[in-house]
Amino acid sequence: MRSSSPPAAKAPPVGAATADAEALTHAVNALLAPIAQLAVAKGMPCSTVEALLRKAFVRAARDAHPNLAPQRMVSRIATATGLNRREVTRLTQHDAMPAPRRPLSAEVFARWSSDPHYRDAKGRPRKLARQGPAPSFEALAQSVTRDVHPRSLLDELLRLGLAAADAADDSVALVHDAFVPRGDAARMLGFLGDNVGDHLSGAVANVLGDGRRHFEQAVFADELSAQSLEATRATISAQWHALAAALVPQLEAAIAADRAAGRAQDQRLRIGLFSYSQRMPDDSGTTPDDAAIRTNEALPPIPTNERDRS
């Protein structure tokens, strides 16, 4: 017979606690290394990063105690973060930064890349007449928003180098298969914060929970040649296009169905696919027989009913 009340929490063995602390230190160090690389490359001093980190600590501690009485909040945050009360008081007086909105040009790009009405028989984005009835760029832009003139949206895609105009037949075409606005450092940094931020938030939520809340899987391989990497990149790109082509119409239909049903539309979702490769260190000590392919599936797959609720 099983008790309905949860068992009392037991302190982990000293050895396990030490191992967990070492693993946490290693993980945080791995996360901070690319942040430091970015900051140094962009001329952001350590003091600025430290100030941002202090604010993030205060927000995290405050979010961990949402129902705490205001008069106890400063003390609790100070205890949780190790910051002194005066510093916590100073930091809590500043409002949190608002979440940035997705640019309309990105929405136009996504619909052009995924909507069957704007793709050819091979699934590639069509070359569109600049004006006129659908399928045209004018109709495409107006299907996303009527608050911004289609010409302004086209000019933005042209500026970012994502589309090209043909004056001979007054048409436009996409010239890139991913919305990466080359030459627009501010927007590229925005994507970095949005995409990696959500990915990291999902990973942290899994670590702090049971590991099943957010889908996160990866495959790791070493002992590859440069030629093999190029061949693999083509497969990754094809898989992403297939996934995006299936997901975007499904999500648009879900948004419309939720609106029509009067359901609370208070949830957001980001789905991504990433790859990263680098040269193996010369002192790795591996031999051809040491080559490995690993996945990070530490837990069994999420049951279908649980996956649907997440």
Describe this entry's structure for a reader.
- The chain is mainly α and 310 residues long.
- 52% of the residues lie in helices and 5% in strands.
- The longest helix is centred in the C-terminal third of the chain and has 36 residues, at 226-261.
- The protein is globular.
Task: Show the helix and strand layout.
Blueprint: H1 14-41, H2 46-64, H3 70-81, H4 85-92, H5 104-114, E1 128-129, H6 137-144, H7 150-159, E2 163-166, E3 171-174, H8 185-208, E4 219-221, H9 226-261, E5 293-295, H10 304-309
Antiparallel strand pairs: 1-3, 2-3, 4-5
Q: What is the overall pLDDT average?
A: 82
Unreliable spans are 1-9, 298-310
Q: DSSP strand (E) fraction?
A: 5-15%
Radius of gyration: 24 Å
Most strands sheet: 3 strands, antiparallel
Order of helices and strands: HHHHHEHHEEHEHEH
Biggest sheet, spatial arrangement of strands: 1-3-2
Percent of residues in helices: 40-55%
Q: Please tally the β strands and state the result.
A: 5
Structural class: mainly alpha
Distinct helical segment count: 10
Defining traits:
single chain, 310 residues, three-stranded antiparallel sheet, two-stranded antiparallel ribbon, globular
What can be said about this structure in brief?
The chain is mainly alpha-helical. It is 52% helix and 5% strand. The strands form 2 sheets. It has a 3-stranded antiparallel beta sheet.
